[in-house]
Structure formats: structure tokens, C-alpha cells
Amino acid sequence: MLRTVVCDDEKPALELMESLLEDTGSVNIVLATQSIVSALERINQGGVDLIIFDIDMPRLTGVEAAQEITATPNPLLVFTTAHPEYAVEAFGVDAIDYVLKPLTPERIAHAVDKAVRMHALIAASETVPDQELPETHESGPEVLKVKDMGNVYFVPFSEVTSIEAAGDYSLVHTADRDYAMRKAIRTLETELPSSMFVRVHRSSIVAVPHVREVRTLPKGEASILLSSGKTIKSSRSYKEAVRRLIDARSL
Predict the structure, then answer these.
(1) Weakly modelled stretches of the chain, pLDDT under 70
(2) What is the pLDDT of residues 81-128, one digit of tens each?
């Protein structure tokens, strides 16, 4: 059960979110509040796995509040908003998902399922402290070094299909399995070769060799099909990145 804090300044929306979250059977709501200050106080006490913030709130927006979180590691973050996705992309916060209002059971269930999957991967990667890991050589220029369940894996760049943001972590996807790295996606992006990896979304990096199709959508968005069968949607804020991806895939 994910220990969850929910904040929305509108009482009907807050009550609906509580009900929909409880229906998933995967969360334990430790606080549901209309006060963003109260939400931050509880979150920064620690022990929270997931937070769900409405973006448009008085005093502090959900985005501004997320930047005030000091708990380590940061809880997984989901935004609810009436804004289109490209507005969220302008904010410097690594949310794992955003849910457009009006809220629906299906959309909330999807967000919670994603959070549960990410939390499980992160928890598995943290079962053994770093100092208990065997010493290994540093990863080479074409390899990601990933700790998982007390082991260290050296994952070749060529096997990585995509990378997904999860707060302070990044989830590395390959055809065979997924790994959690305690490194934010914005940091990992700077360490990967731009010729092989392109960030196409605030929460997604794709591996150029594994791109099978790029389909343009309205409003400057795009749908990217990977060799794994997974589809990643890119927002219009990353229009130039998608163009660069297409050019790189054509070489």
C-alpha cells in the first residue's frame, strides 16, 4: 500500500480523488487536505510514498509546493490539472504522471498502477545498502551501471529501449527487464550520448536505435513506437527533440 498525501483546494475534487484512490485498493491515504501548507508539513516529516497535487491552488501552486519538498528520497508525484500537457512541461518538476480533470476511475487507476510499479522497482533497488555491495570496476562509456537487489548490473546502451522519470530515480527499460537507478532523469540525460538517446518528454528518454515509428499528432505532439511494443507520447514542448530523433533515426 502506497502511503499517500492528496491536496486539492476544492473540496468536491478532493473528496472525489479520495474515493477513486480508495477504490484502487493500492493506497493508504495518510492525509487528504485542502491546505497545501499542511500537505507539505506532513510530506517533509517523511514516510510518504506518493503525493497527488492539484496544480492550480492559492498561496502555493502544486508545482511550487513540489519544489519545497525536503523529504529524501522525494515521494513519487502526480499532478491533477485542467491544463493541457504542454503547460506541465514548462515546469521544472519530475512528476511521474498528470491527470486531466474531470477525474475518472480509469485514469486514476492508471496513475496508481504506474506509481505502484515504480515504487516496487525502487524498493527492490534499495534492499541492500551501497556499502554492502561488492566492489566493481566503473562502467565503461557504453554501459550503465545499475544496482538492483544487492547486485550491480552493467547494462549496455544498446539494450536500453527507454528511460522513465520517477522523482529522484530513473527507471531503465530493456527488452528483458526493468531497473531502478537512484539518479534523476535530468541528470542521467546529461550523461548519455545525444546520438543514441533523446529526451522526448519531461518524464521519458527514448533510445534512437529502438524507435520503430514516429507518428505526428495534433497540437505538435507525437506518438513514438519502440521495438519493445511500448508507445511513448511526446508533448509539443519537445517538438524539436522529436525532429532531432527523426533525423537521427534516418541516418
Answers:
(1) 84-92, 126-141, 148-150, 251
(2) 877 664 565 566 778 888 889 999 999 999 999 999 999 888 877 654
3-state secondary structure the chain: CEEEEEECCCHHHHHHHHHHHHHHCCEEEEEEECCHHHHHHHHCCCCCCEEEEECCCCCCCHHHHHCCCCCCCCCEEEEEECCCHHHHHCCCCCCCEEEECCCCHHHHHHHHHHHHHHHHHHHHHCCCCHHHCCCCCCCCCCEEEEEECCEEEEEEHHHEEEEEEECCEEEEEECCCEEEECCCHHHHHHHCCCCCEEEEECCEEEEHHHEEEEEECHHHCEEEEECCCCEEEECHHHHHHHHHHHHHHHC
Rounded to a whole number, what is the largest CA-CA distance in the chain? 55
Q: Model-level pTM?
A: 0.78
Distance CA 213, CA 216 (A): 10
Amino acid at the residue 127: T
Alpha carbons 212 and 230: distance in angstroms, whole number: 10
